Amino acid sequence: MPNTDVSGSRVAYAEAGCGETVLLLHSSASTGAQWRSLMEILRPQWRVLVPDLYGYGETDRRPDPGLPGLADEVALVDAVLGESAERIHLVGHSYGAAAALRFAADRPQRLLSLTLIEPVSFHLLRGAPARTAERKAFRDVATLAAEVTDAAAAGEGHRGMARFIDYWNGDGAWQRLRPDMQEMLARQAITVALDFRAALTEPMWLEALRAIAAPTLVLRGSASPRPTRRIADLVAGVLPNAYLQTIEGAGHMLPLTHREAVDAAIAGHLFHSAARAQRPAA
After folding, report:
1. Burial of 140 (0-12, 13-18, 19+ CB in 10 A)
2. Which residue in 2, 3, 69, 272 has the fewest CB atoms around it within 10 Å?
């Protein structure tokens, strides 16, 4: 895989195709390989860039793991894009969607389109009044994050990731995994804990998203946990050119469990956005 450097950390990414650039950001406890089917769909007409985020796949851990933040991932995206000033189509899922949203807020002029699949932008729930559904959702996620973090710190990655996997995929999901997959995921507990910290403590507020004018598709699953379904609602409601689409029967890992529907929705959004950008001004 090609790679670049960010403050001494190696960042690996896959690249295929040519044309306008589509950059895909994966979820926590995953790698860029989660986008393999979408990459094959897009590569005949698009240049597709697929990085491994910090601590996953062939990318090193964060340059400063003591202070994790979504700004780290924005710097990673900048490095993968290199010196090009071209506008891009940006797609993210879960933690990758939270990073994509931060990139969009920081660099709205760089976007041709944006696709957000259940962003774990938990910080958007943090400022809600104490007795609201949003604040309850924030507390639920903070409890999950604390459990994963405490287990990782105690060297009990299996316990922490069992809780993580079952939360996002339903009770018993961890037990159904092969032992080698459990072992691989257990080694990622520390990185997942850092992802949680970044998503929970991000300082960006909901109002900052109003500056993102790019056409945006927000995808969610009808069976996903309440926090990410609510975040999808909030984001779609505040972005000026956003469309919310729900995949019926899908949970949080919809790019994997409902791959055909998700890939088709993303491809359709990209083609529509590209065609809209090429229309002459009235």
Report:
1. middle
2. 2
Q: What stretch of H or E contains 159?
A: helix 157-169
Domain boundaries, the chain: 3-126+205-278, 133-197
Sheet holding 3-6, edge to edge: 3-6, 9-16, 47-51, 21-25, 88-93, 111-117, 216-221, 242-247
- Tokens 């949970």 map to which residue? 251
d(CA 146, CA 233): 25
Buried b or exposed e, range 197-223, using 16+ CB within 10 angstroms: bbbbebebebebbeebebbbbbbbbeb
The model carries a pTM of 0.95
**Cβ distance 94 to 28 under 8 Å?**
yes
CATH code: domain 3-126+205-278 is: 3.40.50.1820
> How confident is the model over 145-198, as pLDDT tens digits?
999 999 999 999 999 999 999 999 999 999 999 999 999 999 999 999 999 999
